[in-house]
Amino acid sequence: MIFSHFLGVLPFRGGRKQAEMGRLFIEDAKGEKVLMCKGCRVDSASYDDIESKEFQGRYGRAYLFRKVVNIVIGSSEPRFLSSGFHVVNDIYCSSCMQLVGWRYEIAKEESQKYKEGMFILEKERMEKKGG
Ligand SMILES: [Zn+2]
């Protein structure tokens, strides 16, 4: 089910965001300790930008980040999560197009609003560098 969903939104023909970011432009995450995409070892986020490590992703433990790099943002979709109703975008590594997590676009609950514009990265899809 997850796999077919993944194929459904993967921007094979190059979405708007992908065109803006450019296919070959790779940005370095700042800081000593970095999370890299497990698939292609391109930087995904700096530990300096972690908001919380206490999140649950599709594949287990996940981290909440204020900022990520080398990420393509998929289409908006409504999703019921453990913390209530949200509108989220799945996010993909811009280098290898692996699904790596999601972005919170809208949180309905007042207590969850702080997550809007932040990113979940699945620990299972990531590899640590440095630190
Ligand atoms: Zn990758």
TrEMBL record:
Limits of the Yippee domain: 33-130
Cited PROSITE patterns: YIPPEE
Pfam family, one: Yippee-Mis18
Keyword annotations: Metal-binding, Zinc
Keyword Zinc in annotation: yes
Any GO MF annotation of the entry: metal ion binding
Superkingdom per UniProt: Eukaryota
Transmembrane segments: none
The UniProt record lists the keyword Transport: no
PANTHER family linked: PROTEIN YIPPEE-LIKE CG15309-RELATED
Family designation: Belongs to the yippee family.
Protein name per Swiss-Prot or TrEMBL: Protein yippee-like
Species, as recorded: Linum tenue
